Amino acid sequence: VTLGDQTFQRGAGGETHQTASGDIETLTTQVGTPVADDQNSLRGGQRGPTLVEDQHFREKIFHFDHERIPERVVHARGFGAHGYFETYESLADITRADIFQRPDEKTELFVRFSTVAGNKGSADVARDVRGFAVKFYTRQGNWDLVGNNIPVFFIQDAIKFPDLIHAAKAEPDSDFPQAQTAHDNFWDFISLTPESMNMALWIMSDRTIPRSFRFMEGFGVHTFRMINAEGKSSFVKFHWKPKQGLQSVAWNEAVKLNGADPDFHRRDLWTAIKSGDFPEWELGLQVFDEKFADEFEFDVLDPTKIIPEEQVPIRIVGRMVLDRCVDNFFAETEQVAFQTGNIVPGIDFTNDPLLQGRNFSYLDTQLSRLGSTNFNHLPVNAPRCPFHHFQQDGHMAFHNPKGRANYEPNSWGAEGGPRENPETGFASHPEELEGPKGRYRSETFADHYSQARQFYLSQTEVEQGHIGDAFIFELSKVEKLAIRERMVAHLLNVDADLAETVGKGLRLKTMPKAADAARPTVTGLKPSPKL
Ligand code: HEM
């Protein structure tokens, strides 16, 4: 039978064969051998066993058996798209980063939005922080701005990240809850980690139930540096402002959406782009100098704090347009490897201890997740500018050095491969460092409540109501009373009315005393003498 340009044939057993004809390509094995029959394995007789010599069958099953790779240890569920960044003006005054030199220039990029705590198969509209990771394929290498849709973070030092994530993800014995819905371990950790209070207010706000990825802001969170051609350093905070506006759903909508369509956010982005309604964000910078940093009432290296826009206005410098869906989810969205360490000349790190730890973590985890030191050879990760280095071999290497030399210095002249370039190459900002080695708990990071209060008071009455409701809903799922009380004790340092609303909502018999702001980490536990 021929239907359109497809030909169907009935096999001897009544099965349907679809055969190549016209423009329809011939099915092949991995090495290109044309396949005659993809329905029936090779057997010894009509009712006999399958033969090991059936190479096509073995290759097909072998490959299928190994399709899964580990999901990301965090941000496992995500959705990506291609697009471009367009500069509005030259930023040569503050950075020599090539991407920011010329007005109206376009640079290709890839974005992956994600939830943090849920596994790869979890629901899109869970109450959770959203990842907002952008890979710019610049002419001087890939620059990854690996941010979130919340401008602050839970912890100040990367050494606590495994604990935060263990507490936020499924509990080790029961393996539930899967997403960041309320549970004892999560709130236990938060209530014992006062530095997370600003973030706690943000995550109980409507920001963590966005209407879709298209209606979210994005933030680089940390303070970074920009360095201009004269070597002058400025501090910078990165912001993404959605042209679509900022919108969230209400909690009862989120719960229904998660049941009715767990793919709600990915479907929204896919459909918008496929129908030509390309989402856009503007990139904004808060630029400030050492003098501002010294005078600012918080430490600019503390990732649990924002710099209010009233104090440092945002300079809008360009726009990002997402205009192309992926051709293959696994090859692109799943295998993309963002790294905070991927920066380009003209941009540099600061000593934010969370950022410094992230720089180690991403490279490390991606070896485990992608299985080879050569994951940057994958098309979605490879730079789009020329690149030359002497790294070689390893699993799946297909960009090995060409020619005679794979080392330097060498005396092979022009045939000896690439050489370092002090003029165009990346150079770290020569910041002066001093002081004794030690594990410090910085005094300048110690105020955990003022910005939480500032955030709460900046919300409308309706939004404040949502925050109170969210705390009551989430904490009412916590079984251990002491954890509920500890959270209300923190809220007393944020806003007395909010604390009272939550305390009443949780039907606490007596209100706890406010947490001791001067002694932030109080577990009340002493190590056992047996240890
Ligand atoms: C993944 C953001 C803190 C470790 C991600 C992703 C985002 C992100 C957006 C998903 C990337 C993707 O789509 O592939 C952030 C932000 C942080 C933060 C904004 C704080 C400001 C940390 C810290 C660590 C960490 C402190 C560890 C010390 C990881 C790891 C992954 C990840 C291991 C998985 C990467 C992969 O498998 O490719 N993070 N993160 N993150 N993050 Fe973070």
From TrEMBL:
Regions of compositional bias (Basic and acidic residues) in chain numbering: 429-438
GO biological processes: hydrogen peroxide catabolic process; response to oxidative stress
Segments for region (Disordered): 1-24, 404-438
Entry GO terms, CC: cytosol
Names of the cofactor(s): heme
Positions contributing to heme binding: R72, R112, F161, R358, Y362, R369
Keyword Oxidoreductase: yes
The organism's place on the tree of life at top rank: Bacteria
Residues at the active site: H75, N148
GO molecular function (one): catalase activity
EC number: 1.11.1.6
Record's keyword terms, sorted: Heme, Hydrogen peroxide, Iron, Metal-binding, Oxidoreductase, Peroxidase
The reaction(s) this protein catalyses: 2 H2O2 = O2 + 2 H2O
Domain Catalase core, residue spans: 28-416
Top-rank EC class of the record's enzyme: oxidoreductase
Family under the similarity heading: Belongs to the catalase family. HPII subfamily.
Annotated function: Decomposes hydrogen peroxide into water and oxygen; serves to protect cells from the toxic effects of hydrogen peroxide.
Protein name in UniProt: Catalase
Span of the entire protein shown here: 12 to 542 of 703
